[in-house]
Amino acid sequence: MTPGNPSTETDSWIPLSQVQQTNVFTLDDEVNQIDVKSGHPLWRVTNQPPIYVVSAARADGTRNEFDFYNQNTAMRVAAAIRRAAGLCGGGTDGA
After folding, report:
1. What residue segments make up the domains of the chain, in order of their start?
2. Does residue 61 sit in helix, strand or coil?
3. Which of 10, 85, 92, 94 is 20 to 30 Å from 59 at the Cα level?
4. What is the pairing mode between strands 63-68 and 19-26?
5. Given this model, what pLDDT does residue 1 score?
């Protein structure tokens, strides 16, 4: 992924009434957890600059994810999703 050049760009939507939890984490954390689950606990990934992921998870395990280079922007988007989900009958849990 290169700044200004999205790797994937598609139209999509978030079923806010089904969102149960919204979290922010780094892409490094996500990939490192996948590596551990895949039997490679010593593998480590580091993205520079850091990429922050906003994840809106539903009860069925599906997620909408959005990547940001700015942590403050990611935190604001996550807060907005939590608020919107709460207004639509979804969950407001998350970190």
Report:
1. 16-94
2. coil
3. 10
4. unpaired
5. 46
25 within 8 A of 57, measured Cβ to Cβ: no
**Mean pLDDT across the chain, nearest whole number?**
86
Q: Which of 39, 28, 94 is nearest to 63 (CA)?
A: 94
What does the alpha-carbon distance between residue 67 and residue 76 come to, in Å, rounded to a whole number? Answer: 13
Backbone phi, psi, residue 53, to 5°: -110, 130
The residue assigned the tokens 């490192």 is 32
Distance CA 27, CA 68 (A): 10
3-state secondary structure of 41: coil
For the stretch 50-80, pLDDT in tens is 999 999 999 899 999 999 999 999 999 999 9
Q: What is the pTM of this model?
A: 0.78
